[in-house]
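Example (one chain per record):
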Amino acid sequence: MIRFYNQVSETFMECNENTKPWLLEVIREEGFVPGDLMYIFMDDEMLLEINKKHLSHDFYTDIITFDLSETEEEIAGEMYVSTDRVNENAMQFGVSYAEEMHRVLVHGLLHLCGYDDKNEEERKKMRAKEDYYLQKIDLDIMLES
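Predicted structure:
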C-alpha cells in the first residue's frame, strides 16, 4: 500500500488515482513485491532535522529513504520529501514541478530496489532508470499543481 502524508501547510501537490499505480508498476518491473510505502512531504527545515538526527548530515536534500522491507522480495519504507527542494530543483533544472516531483518519488523507490548514487557511475545508472520510468507516464495527468 502506498500512502501520502502532507506535513506542509500549503497545498503542494494533488496525487490523483494514476500516481500510485505508476509507482506500483515501477516496483513490479524492478522485480519486487510492494509492501507498505509512505511518502511524507515536508519543508526544508523539517527534512534537515531528519537528515541531521538520523544520518548525521548537515545539508538540505530532496528525499531521505528508510528501508523497512522485511524480506528481499518486498519493497517497504518511509520516504521523506522536501517540497522546497523539489520546487527549487525544478526551477534550477528548467523542468516542471510535476516532473521533478515524480523524479524524486521514483528516486526513493529505486533506492529501496537497491540502486545507489554515491559515485558518478551509480548516479548515471539511477538517472537512466529515473528517465526510463518518467517516460512511461503522462505528467499532465499525474499531478495537478
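Caption: DSSP finds six helices and four strands in the chain.
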